[in-house]
Design goal:
Pfam families: ADH_N, ADH_zinc_N. The protein is of the alpha/beta class. It folds into two domains: 206 residues, Medium-chain alcohol dehydrogenases, catalytic domain (Quinone Oxidoreductase, Chain A, domain 1, Alpha-Beta Complex), CATH 3.90.180; 99 residues, Rossmann fold (3-Layer(aba) Sandwich). The protein contains eleven helices and 14 strands.
């Protein structure tokens, strides 16, 4: 069995400059409940940049292998692993040692892949069996590598509450939704349109995008469900857009975690809406999403520029500078 792997590690938290490529990074021994995965592709998240900078109090294990999202092939399994076998194609799940139906907390994620457990920017990885799920058969490794964080969070935001059931098609469009997307420039807006979004708002040229979004709804009643990834500085606009009895899924902190003028819980009374915080999704949700993707022939969109294993710094810079459209992928083999 392999005892070493080619990998990127974080030598500190000084930003992207802390990334170091190591030809012979040690692999831990395969435990009874572990699997060894040959990683074929990984995808990047803004979380990785935040970890590299030590933002939000995020800590790391020394010389951690970054990134949580990936896809590959199981090469070996521990003696107590029952549901996986060599040859299975799998996606990584960010958390570890979690029950299948238990929602993740910030503490669970902090203890997981890319932060305190070696992640996916390596050619081989040893993961607890709870940190992988079988990937959809209809996807390439590059496409499947995008599902761990963004895909699962979107699935949970749209369908995580009881009574919200996906229908045949693609995630949001599948539910018969009128999709209103926001983006930072007109080029990306055109791409959203080509993907089927009914309305697209450039939030830089239209800072009052919440009012604009509400105007797109039937009778100006407001939006049924908003997936807010901006955090403290976008909530005001989300509240402007929401309808009475609508819901806001709080799914990210791209705009920051605090703001002196941030709305409070009592704004739920003023706007007669529900807000729901969520992090990723459970293994049960991951498996349901993958089944839905396979059954409906859905293919996640990846950025047109795919990077190689030796180009990880360039890939993170591409993400940090917002040059991407959709997920930034690193092809490992």
């Amino acid at each position: 069995m392999a005892s070493q792997t080619a990998a990127w590690t974080l030598t500190g938290q000084r930003g992207i400059s802390s990334l170091k490529f190591v030809e012979n990074h040690p692999l831990p021994a395969l435990g009874h409940h572990d699997v060894r995965v040959r990683i074929h592709a990984a995808s990047l998240n803004y979380r990785g940049i935040a970890i590299a900078l030590g933002k939000f109090g995020l800590t790391i294990k020394d010389n951690i292998v970054p990134a949580s999202d990936g896809a590959g092939v199981v090469e070996a399994v521990g003696s107590q692993v029952c549901n996986l076998k060599p040859g299975d194609k799998v996606c990584t799940h960010m958390t570890t040692h979690m029950a299948d139906d238990t929602p993740a907390t910030f503490a669970d994620i902090g203890a997981g892949l890319g932060q305190h457990v070696d992640g996916t920017l390596q050619s081989h990885g040893i993961y607890h069996e709870t940190s992988v799920v079988k990937m959809p058969d209809n996807l390439s490794f590059e496409e499947a590598a995008t599902l761990t964080c963004s895909g699962l969070t979107a699935w949970n935001a749209l369908f995580g509450l009881k009574g919200r059931e996906p229908k045949k098609g693609s995630f949001a469009l599948a539910s018969g939704a009128t999709v209103i997307a926001t983006t930072s420039n007109d080029d990306k807006a055109s791409k959203f349109k080509s993907l089927g979004a009914h309305h697209v708002i450039n939030y830089k040229s239209t800072p009052d995008w919440g009012t604009t979004a509400k105007g797109f709804t039937l009778g100006g009643q407001g939006v049924d469900l908003i997936v807010d990834v901006g955090g403290a500085f976008t909530l005001h606009q989300s509240l402007k857009a929401i309808r009475p009895e609508g819901g806001i899924a709080l799914a990210g902190l791209l705009g920051g975690a605090s703001n002196p003028d941030m709305p409070s819980l009592m704004d739920g009374l003023s706007y007669l809406c529900t807000s729901r915080g969520l992090l990723l999704g459970t293994r049960v949700q991951f498996q349901a999403m993958n089944h839905f993707i396979e059954e409906n022939g859905i293919r996640p969109l990846i950025d047109e520029e795919v990077f190689g294993l030796h180009e990880v710094r360039e890939a993170y810079e591409h993400l940090e500078q917002q040059k991407h459209f959709s997920k930034v992928v690193v092809k490992i083999c």
